[in-house]
Amino acid sequence: DTGVSQDPRHKITKRGQNVTFRCDPISEHNRLYWYRQTLGQGPEFLTYFQNEAQLEKSRLLSDRFSAERPKGSFSTLEIQRTEQGDSAMYLCASSSREGSEAFFGQGTRLTVV
Amino acid sequence: GEDVEQSLFLSVREGDSSVINCTYTDSSSTYLYWYKQEPGAGLQLLTYIFSNMDMKQDQRLTVLLNKKDKHLSLRIADTQTGDSAIYFCAESMPGGGADGLTFGKGTHLIIQP
Fold first, then answer.
1. Going edge to edge, which strands form the sheet with B55-58?
2. Would you call A56 and B98 a contact, using CB atoms and an 8 Å cutoff?
């Protein structure tokens, strides 16, 4: 197992375009989290899944954001009609159970121009 | 709501010990974590401590938890240039909600030769 994998590592897009990121968690980790990190800040929680169920969404997750985990394994995060304020590092993490340590991927750095 | 506070910068000489401090507000935190982030990279879990422990040692790392004062510290012995990074303190909540992590803004550890 190579850990949490995210794709792509970098994405540059024009304002108004849609983007989709993928996260592959550690095998058999049933919890998967998405975080966003802007420059000079710590990561901020966006949403999390337990298996295929999306159990919590932060108010940071506007209607333009949608996340899925259709088979309880990999997850996608889509941002529609991107804005410059969406520029950030999007981090995915997984854990095996409630309260256990979360392992992070390398992140996808989004730049909206 | 929960809040995690850290100093933004810490400068130490190579070979000295570094002590990075963190305060948190939610007494129901179950786990407290230290993550390391190098430039342009994702988060690396360094160590964690369960809330009913006072201290945890792992090679050059020592974590101290004062639950009464809601104070967490990370001591790095014999600090090396490779320790230069941003260190994030994070707390996790019990289940029944997001069960995500709340991060501080990070402490930049600067190593002087």
1. B4-6, B18-24, B71-76, B61-66, B55-58
2. yes
**Type of residue at B35:** Y
pLDDT for position B100 = 73
Specify whether the CB–CB gap between B31 and B92 falls below 8 A: yes
Residue B82 tokens read as 């490779």
Q: Provide the shortest C-alpha distance from residue B41 to chain A (in Å).
A: 6
DSSP state of B30: -
| Long-range CB contacts for residues A67-72, cutoff 8 Å, separation at least 24 | A67/A34, A69/A32, A72/A30
Q: Is B108 on the interface with A (CB under 8 A)?
A: no
Nearest CA in chain A to B88: A42
pLDDT tens by residue, B15-73: 999 999 999 887 777 788 999 999 878 888 899 888 888 999 999 999 999 999 999 99
CA B105 to CA B91: how far, in whole Å?
13
